[in-house]
Amino acid sequence: MKKYLALLALSVSLTSVATAQQDPKAGKILDQMSAKYQAMKAFKATFTQTLENDAAKVKENLSGDITVSGQKFRLKMSGQEVINNGQTMWTYMKAENEVNISDYEPEDQEISPSQIYTLYKKGYKYAYVQEAKEGGELVDVIELSPEDRNNPVYKVRLKVGKTDKAVKSWQMFKKNGNRYTYKISKFQPNVPVDATTFNFDKAKYKGVKVIDLR
């Protein structure tokens, strides 16, 4: 659970509404980026997550992929699958051949992969940092900082392609010293999805142990 929560924790604490003056240059870029993703019926991203903590001398790499359509998503990462159809969430752990079922209540959720590209709209200040290069491509670097001082995240740094307005990578800095870096290695817009994409089919997991937490 912790590994996938780390990926999705980019969109924690979205309850407070931003009231401070925002950087208009950064805002324009973020609006263009957000519109790009929200216009898609669905998308799939393959990513690498790197967790670093200098004080603890920790560096861990994980890879996975996520398919998103509105509030629905299917995440595969490090032997786990997390599936959400907008009403129900299934968390499947391959090693234990076990699935936990819980209700999906967006108003009570601190995380939502469908909000990654709208994070800046609530509870965060944003500022343009600089133009840089990533993988030979020009990107705009933008920093987000939460208005809620109790937020365990104190800074998020986004890198957005200057030409295509796509998110190339982002970093999440936490108060406990953990630093998460996410890099998108492959992105597929408007992938085909249907009802089976975002539902757990028990028949496909022979002998699976079901724990219903609803």
TrEMBL record:
CDD domains: LolA. Residues 1-20 form the signal peptide. It comes from the Bacteria. Pfam families: LolA (PF03548). This is Cell envelope biogenesis protein LolA. Keywords: Signal. The keyword Disulfide bond does not apply. InterPro entries: LolA/LolB/LppX, OM_lipoprot_carrier_LolA-like.
